[in-house]
Prior knowledge:
two-stranded antiparallel ribbon
Amino acid sequence: xxxxxxxxxxxxxxxxxxxxxxxxxxxxxxxxxxxxxxxxxxxxxxxxxxxxxxxxxxxxxxxxxxxxxxxxxxxxxxxxxxxxxxxxxxxxxxxxxxxxxxxxxxxxxxxxxxxxxxxxxxxxxxxxxxxxxxxxxxxxxxxxxxxxxxxxxxxxxxxxxxxxxxxxxxxxxxxxxxxxxxxxxxxxxxxxxxxxxxxxxxxxxxxxxxxxxx
Length: 214
């Protein structure tokens, strides 16, 4: 009985700790392509219109609704300061996604797209990717929104944003510079071109611990 009680207690602790997984906001260390936890780095750069976070545990029926609600809350809370057009989910801690979680994630992807927000996935493990393919979630998201690193995902998001602006300009008969002189636009090359991050917001507490320098 003592062993059974111990197992039950351990299981209860695991469920409790994973029911509300950490969602860690990431920002870029200036001058690098490295993205770190904003709580661990005193100086960092936010990318305009791109929200980057790390999901802290595997996704299953008991926690996926919480994750969905938190992501929606971030979108709402940041709507004035940094309107989100792209969300990059760093998936390193996620080692499994069950069927219930896949269904909820599919709803999140569709809901965000209706709001004009694209979801990009970075550093997805083979097992998770296989589960996503099996449930059809991979097809809903699209292969082009999966990346090996956060930096690749951010670069693609910025390229995609620039392409959208160009398409809108052409459609509204606004003269816009299109490389190659062609007005026939094709899919964005997701991995072979670097977008220069020329417009960014940096924050630092290094100069004075009582003040934040922007």
